[in-house]
Amino acid sequence: MRIVYVITRADEVGGAQVHVRDLAAAVRAAGHEVTVLAGSTGVLAEQLARQGVPLRVAPDLVRPIAPHRDLAALRQLHALLEELRPDLVTVHSSKAGWLGRVAARRHRLPVIFTAHGWAFTEGVPRAQRTLYGLAERLAAPLADHIITVSEYDRALALERRIAPPHRITCIHNGVHDISLSLPGGGGRAPGPVRILMLGRFSAQKDHPGLLRALAGLPPGSWVLDLAGEGPDQARIAALAAELKIAPYVHVLGPRDDVADLLRRSDIYALISHWEGLPYSILEAMSASLPVVASNVGGVREAVLDGLSGILVPRGDGAALRAALAGLIGDPAHRERLGIAGRRRYETAFRFETMLARTLDLYERVAAAGAAVEGRSRQRS
Predict the structure, then answer these.
(1) How do residues 234-269 score in pLDDT, each as one tens digit?
(2) Which H or E run includes 357?
(3) What is the pLDDT of residues 82-126, one digit of tens each?
(4) CA 78, 83, 84: angle at the middle one, nearest 5?
């Protein structure tokens, strides 16, 4: 098959970019012809190039809503699809999802939309939820199929009547085995318990809640590493200073050594207002780390509360502080949760499992599209 992936941004690497990068590389390795279309170049383009996956740019494909640029991006996507003539288009993220579906439909190409967490989920501001819910209902008929990365998101789509059940499939995210991908790299050192959180410094993540919870724990018993980028990075560093915990908080910025950071940590935390099914939690489970996470979106489908990690209610600082305090003070409990998380990863969240299910759906949707196109040509 000739497969085109469409994503809005290639100058950052979040969950959607990791999903596209790893799938595109694996699908190409399986013998398919793959191209990624994005609104920019950057770190994702460099990572794809190392895997032999070409990236083409539609320069007006940008994240903010901008009617003139959106129309230009639609024309650019239309021209690129006209040139590439794929058997299947798979679109990712909200803006690329909308424009990519329209462009694919203009060419009568089969198209799959992957929702990496709905923008109308609980935790998103109400006005934004309303707008995005309406937009997704309007765009849904343009997709032959919709993939959600969690059962939570599939149920939410059905509740909002985004599409009928037979057109929405949950395929859980899967990650490569960290312990196999970087053998011998890094290790946990003695000293204060090291907590790691990976995530964009933006409204979705509750870095302030994590800092305030830790500020109530004995200083020197813990160290926090925060890796990622985003508009709130300086504000989070300033809050750590305000709370008088700056010596224990390391704002690392964007990093490309996530596996090593996980290996050197004792606890993984992901404190959020909303999520789909976060890659970073699955990576932490692969690395045998106990997870403390907000109980939002599909997180509970990965982390079994009390068995492979601890889930806390969104915005509940007291529960978060208690969970962290319990793990900081009990190495044996950290180890038990980490081992259980590793087993959970092996059972349900390996990359190979996601790849097999995704490729099967790709082939079925592409074959159905080819059959429809064939009947259309016969009638004409």
Answers:
(1) 999 999 999 999 999 999 999 989 999 999 999 999
(2) helix 351-379
(3) 999 999 999 998 899 999 999 999 999 999 999 999 989 988 888
(4) 100
Domains and CATH numbers, the chain: 2-174+351-379 (3.40.50.2000), 178-348 (3.40.50.2000)
CA 136 vs. chain centroid, Å, equals 18
Beta-carbon count within 10 A of 340 CB: 19
Q: Which residue has the tokens 């985004």?
A: 162
The answer to whether residues 290 and 268 touch, using CB atoms and an 8 Å cutoff, is yes
- Both tokens of 340, joined, read 């259980």
Residue 25 CA to its chain's centroid (Å) = 17
What is the spatial distance between Cα 224 and Cα 249, in angstroms, rounded to a whole number? 5
Contact 171, 149 (CB under 8 A): yes
Q: How many residues does the chain have?
A: 380
Sign of CA dihedral 207, 213, 216, 217: negative
